[in-house]
Amino acid sequence: xxxxxxxxxxxxxxxxxxxxxxxxxxxxxxxxxxxxxxxxxxxxxxxxxxxxxxxxxxxxxxxxxxxxxxxxxxxxxxxxxxxxxxxxxxxxxxxxxxxxxxxxxxxxxxxxxxxxxxxxxxxxxxxxxxxxxxxxxxxxxxxxxxxxxxxxxxxx
Length: 156
Prior knowledge:
Elements: H1 3-22, E1 32-33, E2 41-45, E3 49-57, H2 61-73, H3 84-93, E4 102-107, H4 115-127, E5 135-139, E6 143-148
Parallel strand pairs: 3-4, 4-5
Antiparallel strand pairs: 1-2, 2-3, 5-6
Helix pairs in contact: 3-4
């Protein structure tokens, strides 16, 4: 299997977990991988129609490579920082071609950071966000809707 096919399969698995965890009314069999420059996933929401999702794993690239190697070798040592800010900043700067609403799913898979740490790190950036994504989700131990363009601004 090619690297792109492995990535697409991993993203579909993450997305299926997202649908179950968040209890979203998305038709599971409608989930399909899409090629760039489209967002990663296109799916059918039973109330909102088709929605495109871009996925980003909150994981330091070096850590991801090391964890993959450990899986193959059976041992290894890992040290990492919280990559949330830099990983998300790259995604928020991109634009995607699609005729559908676009949402961002950030997921904590191979990360050493807790959901609360990731949220605390990225929330200031999201509070200033005014781009293509209409919603931004965080999937970690739980499902968190952390940005919704349809909601009124939060007061503190």
